[in-house]
Amino acid sequence: MNPRIFMPSLLLATSLLHGQQPAQDLLADGLSGFRPTTDWSTVAEVTAIEEKMELQTKGEGRILVNGLSKDKSIPYLCTRHHYGDCKVHLEFMIPRKSNAGVYLMGRYEVQILDSFGKPKVGSGDLGGIYARWDKTKPKKEQWWEGTKPLVNAAKAPGEWQTMDIVFRAPRFDTRGIKTEDATFISVHINGKLVQKNATTSGPTASAPLRGDVISGPIAIQGDHGPIAIRRFIVTALPCPAETWKQEVDAYWASVEKAVSNGDFEAYTNSIHPDGVIVADGKQSSYPLAQALSRWESDFVNTRKGVKTNLEFRFSHRYGDPQTAHEAGIFAYTGEGPDKQPKTDYVHFESLLTKKGSEWKMLMERQMGAASEEDWKALAPVR
């Protein structure tokens, strides 16, 4: 069976990125939920060495650590998935005088610091929204903004602590101009409210990523001191300003149903009348309507019971209320010439446009075969 016709259903997976999702435990499967790194690892046990900025670990397990002592060469750890509005639950431990941070969208930091017992706290203490910094400004004006925690909720170094964040991403109008700043709706440290509706007009100091956007990875700072994390749970929240994603989700659900049922008529109706297919391998492009006549037999075979398996992983999803551009890799397993299962890995991208009240595929492009290694480098959708 030709894997090409299944490419559209793969993109249904991308809807999971930005719509309502179940909570994701990013430590459920080692480091697979994070961008590749050799500097962070997972261990079975961890304790803080008393009166030192050091951790002690044992075995291999599910507790995330960035090292035993402060190491300025350790990079930020970033999630593979990008998030906009979201909730984050973190259970962490730091040794004496250690320093780290959680960067929502890789840009806006909630500070992690050994602030235990401090009578007065600022934006640089545990639970603070870190200040912004600009070296091009006069020296006395280089630091600005930042929101101190409402209370000092820090536990003693070496104890497990919790951080719970409800975050709202920046908002933009149809021209891409920012209309609302990033907002921490609430931050709780060890069950105590430390931030309420705290905003930041841009990326905070030391953020690994720059500029305001609609989504980004969650990053953990690794070069300021040791930190251990035993729970890292993220729940993506629906964004009212991005209702187009819900519409596109419904579109891909209907395409998936048409393909899985061998419903050729429904699949044809999902394609724009002026749709184009781009075949990098043949260095050509031609109307999708022309390709449909070749694909109809594959739908017939599906209805006759040919067994297939489809899995997908993705790299990005962009869009607005009228257009959507999505890309990734799909793995399609069907019957080879010898009737044995055969898996194809294919790089793809697709352009959708809204025609009246309905979304249609305007362009399908297959950019060539992907390797199994390419496939494994992308995070599973679920």
Would you kindly provide a written description of the structure presented here, covering whatever features stand out?
Helix content is 13%, strand content 40%. The chain has 382 residues and is mainly beta. The chain has two domains: 149 residues, Nuclear Transport Factor 2, Chain: A (Roll); 217 residues, Exo-inulinase, domain 1 (Jelly Rolls), CATH 2.60.120. The strands form five sheets. Strands 1, 2, 3, 5, 10, 13, 14 and 16 form an eight-stranded antiparallel beta sheet that branches. A hairpin with a 2-residue loop joins strand 21 and strand 22. The radius of gyration is 24 Å and the shape is elongated.
Produce a short descriptive summary:
This protein is mostly beta strands. It has helices at residues 7-10, 244-260, 264-269, 288-303, 372-377, and strands at residues 24-25, 41-48, 55-65, 77-78, 86-93, 99-104, 108-113, 132-133, 143-144, 161-168, 171-172, 178-180, 182-189, 192-200, 219-220, 228-236, 271-279, 284-287, 309-319, 323-335, 341-355, 358-369. Strands 1, 2, 3, 5, 10, 13, 14 and 16 form an 8-stranded antiparallel sheet that branches. The protein has a 6-stranded mixed sheet with strand order 18-17-22-21-20-19.
